[in-house]
């Protein structure tokens, strides 16, 4: 009799653990599904998240027609594929907050300066219910001739309701990326000579292990990085990381 009771107790505990695991899996899936990704082009994207539209590096004429009004605009760097002042003037509305490092803020025209909130590497602030942290982005090895100097540009981690999204900006496999934790969704750049090649980008992703990774910003002077190879490397070494390939370069 005692053995039967122990058996049923073990079965009950196992059943409860299975139910809890399923509930946790559903919770994680619902959390990630709460963020809709709209790939615009190259470095430009929109996160539609909890009724807010978060733009990143809006660049490109006519690419934002019909899109929801920007609540937050994240700017990463001063280069033309990240900073387009004419497009900014069209997407920034009365309620929009622009978040950018000082180097970008210094280039803002007077009409946009009132919308600016300057964040530099390592700083954290709350905007419209989202916690935003500025993550360094820079090239290795560090050099005065680097395309991206440490401290000038920002990557970002955006967080709400335990959902954490990382946008790398133009960077190498830097220690600050390696030290990221609990990232649900990551956007990682890969285009030599400006950022990483696909092997380095894959190693970087394998360092911090996001649940999902989106290769973006992969146009190169010669064409495009081999994002299929990036996916293959990730899948072969950590199949639990989901690689999501979207259309970042609309055909004319």
UniProtKB/TrEMBL annotation:
InterPro entries: RibonucZ/Hydroxyglut_hydro, UPF0173_UPF0282_UlaG_hydrolase. The chain crosses the membrane at residues 5-23. The keyword Membrane applies. GO terms for molecular function: hydrolase activity. Keywords: Hydrolase, Membrane, Transmembrane, Transmembrane helix. It holds the Pfam family Lactamase_B_3. This is MBL fold metallo-hydrolase.
């Amino acid at each position: 009799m005692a053995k039967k009771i122990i058996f049923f107790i073990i079965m009950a505990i196992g059943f409860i653990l299975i139910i809890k695991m399923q509930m946790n899996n559903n919770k994680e899936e619902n959390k990630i599904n709460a963020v809709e990704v709209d790939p615009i082009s190259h470095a430009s994207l929109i996160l539609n998240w909890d009724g807010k539209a978060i733009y990143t590096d809006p660049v490109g004429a006519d690419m934002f027609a019909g899109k929801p009004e920007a609540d937050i605009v994240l700017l990463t760097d001063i280069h033309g594929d990240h900073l387009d002042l004419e497009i900014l003037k069209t997407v920034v509305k009365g309620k929009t907050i622009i978040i950018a490092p000082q180097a970008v803020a210094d280039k803002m025209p007077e009409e946009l300066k009132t919308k600016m909130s300057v964040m530099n590497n390592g700083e954290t602030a709350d905007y419209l219910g989202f916690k935003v942290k500025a993550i360094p982005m820079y090239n290795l090895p560090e050099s005065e001739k680097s395309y991206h100097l440490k401290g000038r540009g920002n990557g970002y981690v955006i967080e709400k309701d335990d959902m954490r999204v990382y946008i790398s900006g133009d960077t190498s496999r830097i220690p600050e990326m390696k030290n990221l934790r609990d990232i649900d969704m990551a956007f990682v750049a890969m285009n030599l000579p400006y950022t990483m090649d696909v092997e380095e980008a894959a190693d970087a992703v394998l360092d911090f292990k996001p649940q999902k990774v989106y290769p973006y910003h992969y146009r190169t002077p010669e064409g495009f990085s081999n994002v299929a190879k990036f996916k293959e490397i990730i899948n072969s070494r950590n199949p639990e990381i989901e690689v999501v390939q979207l259309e970042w370069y609309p055909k004319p």
